[in-house]
Amino acid sequence: MSSMPPPRPRVSRRLALAGIAFTTIVLIGLAAVSVAVDSIAVAPRLLAPYIERRSSGHNPMIEGIGRRVAALLLWIDRGPLEPRMSWPAWAVPEAPGVGAARTAGRDLTIASVAQLAEALDRALPGDVLTIVPGTYRFTGRSLGVARAGRDDAPITVRAPQPGSVTLEFDMLEGFHVSAPHWVFENLTIVGVCKSDDDCEHAFHVVGGAKRVVIRNNEIREFNAHLKINGAAGAFPDHGRVAGNLLVNSRPRRTGNPVTPFDLVAASDWRVEANLIADFVKDGGDYTSYGAFAKGGGAGTQFVRNVVLCEHRLRGAGGRRVGLSFGGGGSSTAACRDRRCVVEHERGLMRDNLIASCSDDGIYVNRSAQSRILHNTLVDTAGINVRFVESTAVVEGNLVDGPIRTHAGALLRATDNRHTWLTASYLGLGGVRRLFVDASSLDLRWRGEPPRRALADDQPDLCGAPRRNPATYGAFEDLDRCRPR
Length: 484
Prior knowledge:
This protein is α/β, with parallel strands linked by helices. The chain contains five helices and 40 strands.
């Protein structure tokens, strides 16, 4: 029985050359697609609503195609957008100790709406105003806080235990703080206005209200829960916001700014160990921020916060950004120097966990000398540094998305782990695969976490010391954030 003769060498060479040519064409095509995707620098979650808007107003077939393409892009980038009804156990880190030792002052017991207003008007340095447990409803004008404490004797408004006192505000602003050295702690504050336009702020800190501390409170149902800005040439610098829940239970039906921590022109605030969540804007430009500092101030620090742009409101319409230096920009009249050459300078974002954002997790807009260190971003459009005025050092971050620049910004990005933008269009979330189930915020490590050499001893998101080598991102082990 005779066997088939072997292929002629010339045919074999042709097949090999054809295979090489085909592989080369595929690689060139993939490279071209990658270059095109990187050149537009737009994440799928941002391209999807653009396609849907551009296809609307055409014939039904085009509109239908646009909706289907947009839905596919969102699914590839974000997966199922189902609401999550309970907070993760690790979502509210313990607040650090805040404030100086107390000096002698009066202990005042507050048992009514009228007593609180009167006590605020007559408070002296060192006084402690403790509200009797219960629910109190306020209407009409804001509660004026115009009596100054001292650095060594702040005036304190407090509940004896977190959750024991609820203040219901049916008014535009709750506490209007214009004097320095006040502390507000352990309060539950709820906006109860019929129209969302009428519940702007739980706290409005203005002018000379320096060194105000807002800690261990639950604040919900406001447009901008905490609003900080200058007045009459004075600026409320050196404040601290620690261990608070700043949340909403439904989208805000308003065209006004929706930003739970909204700082304009003040400097040297420290925003630490807060949960900021569900800040959905259903009106106006439909764009909201978890927290920003802008208006020409300097030295704001966002440290060890958990920012869940959408959680119980996951999948809502509009655009949400996690943390920002610069926000959407400021009018010159609101700026500290009346010019806003830069929106913010020397800002720090460190050890924050930012998740479930329909837009950027971190956005730097016309802000100089920003430091973005050891943050974890999951299910966001990544980190965006924009405009020529912006300079930023981005180091040690774990980013489920791209790190990118626009419009001449200067970025020094070193030793980060992030997802290549093209991979986002292919559904290849490299960073997500490091976790047990990133889509449900089960952020336990799937295996050994990626590590990097670390030369400092700053604590992680949970307030625990880091190992060396340390993990990329905000935390070593989220179990260390759970209440004990």
